[in-house]
Amino acid sequence: xxxxxxxxxxxxxxxxxxxQLVLTRGDGVYVExxxxxxxxxxxxxxxxxxxxHRHPALLEALSRQAGELIHVSNFFATPAQxxxxxxxxEIVGAxxxxxxxxxxxxxxxxxxxxxxxLKLTRLHKKxxxxxALAHSFHGRTMxxxxxxxxxAYREPFEPLAGVAExxxxxxxxxxxxxxxxxxxxxxxxIQGEAGVIPLVYGFMERARELCDQHNAxxxxxxxxxxxxxxxxxxxxxxxxxxxxxTLAKGLGGGVPIGACIGxxxxxxxxxxxxxxxxxxxxxLACAASLxxxxxxxxxLEHVNEVSAWLTARLEEAGYAVRGRGLLLGVEVADSTAVxxxxxxxxxxxxxxxxxxxxxxxxxxxxxxxxxPFVEIMSRRAAEFQGEK
Length: 388
Ligand SMILES: Cc1ncc(COP(=O)(O)O)c(C=O)c1O
Description:
Aspartate Aminotransferase, domain 2, 7-stranded mixed sheet, 2 domains, alpha/beta, binds pyridoxal-5'-phosphate
């Protein structure tokens, strides 16, 4: 349907280049394009559609909430918003945090969750230095962009307001960077956009110690890794506890919603008037999120089991695999070529860096549904790994 691509180009800003496909419907772990071809969706809207497509629990929650109330302003509260904030308190409590001291600010996206976190760092230590990691990705709005490392994303928009200092994700660099003027350190437990790269052993623990020593906020961006993606609610919590946690992506199962959670003193920094958003905490999005989290809760063990199976099968085929749960990076010789080949074989993945394909399928996916992908990866292993 080439006319759709022409229509796209003539009506939308050219921020994403030519779309790979025009998608018209989805069902479970599959999506269908405008020519009626079906694809196995191993990207799930980039780690978003946790329950896949057209999940009955999500559909039921959306239609029920739409039948009651779709939107109010933040002059008013709604039961869905309050229940979701309580659910997030329960979730951080289950991950070892003091749930009663957690406070939630709802946003519409990951970048906005990080904007909120950035404003908290200003209130925590006015004029303080903000540290972020080389290869980080925290979003594209002007504040979050100051935390995002990739030069190509930042340079056209300079001067940026108050730029973070980027340090290599190594313990020695962390130790060298810290002093009492540091207001905050932002980190992702696994750098998703960089190519599914977990932080080195001991990095988060040392970051926690240094933040404590210098009264700095440890902000953990779990936008991509959180809410079941890595087989638990938060990828970071076995290692450290954050002062601020940011969430989005899988939080709404596909409906736009993000959250900035402040723990303890960090949760009490915003006062009335300090921050706001028209749509953040919208009851429709909150109802979708509640339904999503209710289902994800039952899937955490499943995510770990499927992940172990998939990792073992890919390793047997000779691939190096990184990541955790259902956020996996698979090393290949040329990721753009492999992504394209997989697409022509009916499988959607993406290529976050030149030698990695990223898998972030719906959390409901089964080994049986993954089998055709494993078959392709095994059959074409030599070619995908660059052996002649
Ligand atoms: C770790 C991380 N933080 C923030 C963002 C930005 O989220 P959004 O695209 O919802 O603004 C992303 C998106 O990829 C992300 O992976």
